[in-house]
């Protein structure tokens, strides 16, 4: 087939990684029957149903109505609930008391509620454009001495972002590793030619379109200085690279761009570009210096692993497979797409989508394959996973009709505790840290 050049044709190719496998470069021998995907996955039981007990923690309620205090309380509680490391007591279960900004923490009373830790936060204006954010964490078996006690002076306009940073440090004080909520996601959403790039906070707040409506946009990714890049077609032209500030950006290779990825340190960029009748992978230190990076055809959804290796979904004998470098790590016969790599405390986890009948499930393995684990099952189409900056969570889109319904979810990398953060659906999801903030730690 000839590679589609129109907007609708390009979108069909970009979506092919979750819909149906492209034709392989060479048909398999007639005597070879392709493996049955249902049989390949049939013996792998989904792990999401086996939830383990989590430590209970309490968050001090607040009777203060100042918007800064309301913001930090709502952000920190939400992040603690989403992080999947704790069972957070509802405010209604808190011990009786007067919860003002300077109220002391009665660790003994909280201990009687069965919690293992207590978190206290507050926010108040200290100048016209400055806010003081305070975070404390107490372990009930250590009494009244906090294991975390910090105060930050932050710009008024950044209270929500900096509240996420406080939450991340509180998670770190209680688990040994900071959380990943001082971050943002980007994705493409829409159908046909009406597709735009969106950004959204890691907790589902402030979803907004950032590409203009006259572009058909796909494949967003955060690049150097966290500047957003994406591919877009204007009036049915080829897909070219844009940023919200403008474009198209010049490339040394001609052809429609179907995928963009940047390494964690932003020192490398990779592009999936239509070349002749297939899609090839290119990479380099910047957009103007890209060179061929793989001979595998139909190379889509490029991504860099935490160790700096280039991975993607590419053509296999019977359909798309996940490659790290030029080595396939997903089983042949499973139509695999949209890989992401989580730098989990227990080791790097590869998470990707596989087609199962009319549905799509998420599976996980090691960075080099093997030990395949099924994360979803019988819950509609689940795809386009993205790992949190701390490596402990994976976000994904799901069309499930049970539970909280379709939308954007986050869950633990082991498949447990999925929680919906938005009712939006999309594709090409990315999850990256925010740029450094302007908070200044103050002495207590």
UniProtKB/TrEMBL annotation:
<dbReference type="InterPro" id="IPR011042">
    <property type="entry name" value="6-blade_b-propeller_TolB-like"/>
</dbReference>
<feature type="signal peptide">
    <location>
        <begin position="1"/>
        <end position="25"/>
    </location>
</feature>
<dbReference type="GO" id="GO:0015031">
    <property type="term" value="P:protein transport"/>
</dbReference>
<dbReference type="GO" id="GO:0042597">
    <property type="term" value="C:periplasmic space"/>
</dbReference>
<dbReference type="InterPro" id="IPR011659">
    <property type="entry name" value="WD40"/>
</dbReference>
<feature type="domain" description="TolB N-terminal">
    <location>
        <begin position="44"/>
        <end position="128"/>
    </location>
</feature>
<dbReference type="Pfam" id="PF07676">
    <property type="entry name" value="PD40"/>
</dbReference>
<dbReference type="Pfam" id="PF04052">
    <property type="entry name" value="TolB_N"/>
</dbReference>
<keyword id="KW-0732">Signal</keyword>
<dbReference type="InterPro" id="IPR007195">
    <property type="entry name" value="TolB_N"/>
</dbReference>
<protein>
    <submittedName>
        <fullName>TolB protein</fullName>
    </submittedName>
</protein>
């Amino acid at each position: 087939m000839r590679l589609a050049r129109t907007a609708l044709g390009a979108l069909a190719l970009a979506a092919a990684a979750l819909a149906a496998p492209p034709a392989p470069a060479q048909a398999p021998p007639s005597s070879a029957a392709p493996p049955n995907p249902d049989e390949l996955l049939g013996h792998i039981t989904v792990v999401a149903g086996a939830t383990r007990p989590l430590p209970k923690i309490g968050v001090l309620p607040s009777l203060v109505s100042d918007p800064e205090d309301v913001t930090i309380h709502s952000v920190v509680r939400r992040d603690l609930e989403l992080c999947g490391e704790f069972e957070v007591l509802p405010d209604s279960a808190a011990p009786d008391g007067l919860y003002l900004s300077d109220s002391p923490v009665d660790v003994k009373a909280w201990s009687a509620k069965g919690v293992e830790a207590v978190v206290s936060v507050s926010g108040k204006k200290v100048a016209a454009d400055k806010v003081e954010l305070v975070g404390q964490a107490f372990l009930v078996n250590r009494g009244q001495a906090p294991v975390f006690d910090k105060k930050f002076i932050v710009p008024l306009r950044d209270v929500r972002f900096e509240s996420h940073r406080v939450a991340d440090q509180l998670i770190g004080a209680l688990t040994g590793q900071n959380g990943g909520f001082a971050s943002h996601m980007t994705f493409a959403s829409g159908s046909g030619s009406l597709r735009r790039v969106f950004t959204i906070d890691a907790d589902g707040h402030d979803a907004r379109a950032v590409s203009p409506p006259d572009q058909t946009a796909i494949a967003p990714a955060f690049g150097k200085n966290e500047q957003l890049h994406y591919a877009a077609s204007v009036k049915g032209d080829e897909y070219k690279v844009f940023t919200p500030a403008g474009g198209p950006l010049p490339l040394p290779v001609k052809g429609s761009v179907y995928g963009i990825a940047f390494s964690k340190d932003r020192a490398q960029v990779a592009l999936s570009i239509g070349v002749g009748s297939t899609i090839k992978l290119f990479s380099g230190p910047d957009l103007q210096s890209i060179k061929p990076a793989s001979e595998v055809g139909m190379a889509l959804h490029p991504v860099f692993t935490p160790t700096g290796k280039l991975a993607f979904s590419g053509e296999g004998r019977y359909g798309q497979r996940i490659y790290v470098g030029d080595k396939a790590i997903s089983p042949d016969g499973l139509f695999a797409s949209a890989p992401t790599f989580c730098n989990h405390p227990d080791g790097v986890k590869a998470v990707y989508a596989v087609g199962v009948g009319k549905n799509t499930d998420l599976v996980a393995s090691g960075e080099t394959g093997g030990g395949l684990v099924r994360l979803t099952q019988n819950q509609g189409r689940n795809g386009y996973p993205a790992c949190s900056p701390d490596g402990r969570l994976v976000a994904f889109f799901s069309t499930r009709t049970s539970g909280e319904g379709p939308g954007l979810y986050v869950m633990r990398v082991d498949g447990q505790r999925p929680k919906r953060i938005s009712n939006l659906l999309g594709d090409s999801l990315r999850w990256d840290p925010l740029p450094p903030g302007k908070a200044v730690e103050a002495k207590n």
